[in-house]
Amino acid sequence: MIQLPNNKLILNWHRIFNMNQLFEFFSKKFKSDVDSEFRIENILKNYDNLNIAIRHSDTFLKEENEVMHNKIIELLQKYWTVKQTWKIKKNP
Q: How many other CB atoms are found less than 10 A from the CB of residue 82?
């Protein structure tokens, strides 16, 4: 099991626009072959009281449809505390 500082996983979704990039991120982060939502769930189940910070969640999986976006967020919220931030657009 990969050590996560303070039991936190910080995800910068502005770099993850599709499911393949999501699987690549988890594969690299957890040094395991991740090719499905099921694998993500199985890896993260090992962490009790995990806090997940999702930065720039408004661009997360932007190449996928809204249903897939919501499915992944719901998967993460099923077992862990998830906090999301959105990119704030400044008015001209």
A: 19
State both tokens at 24: 């690549």
Q: 18 and 47 in contact (C-beta within 8 Å)? A: no
| Model pLDDT for residues 47-68, shown as the tens digit of each residue | 888 898 888 777 878 888 889 8
Best CA proximity match to 72, nearest among 83, 61, 81: 61
Chain centre distance of CA 21: 11
- Is residue 91 over pLDDT 70? no
Q: Say which residue the tokens 């099991």 belong to.
A: 1
Distance of CA 51 to the CA centre of its chain: 11
Torsions phi, psi for 61 (to 5 deg): 55, 40
How high is the pLDDT of residue 89? 54
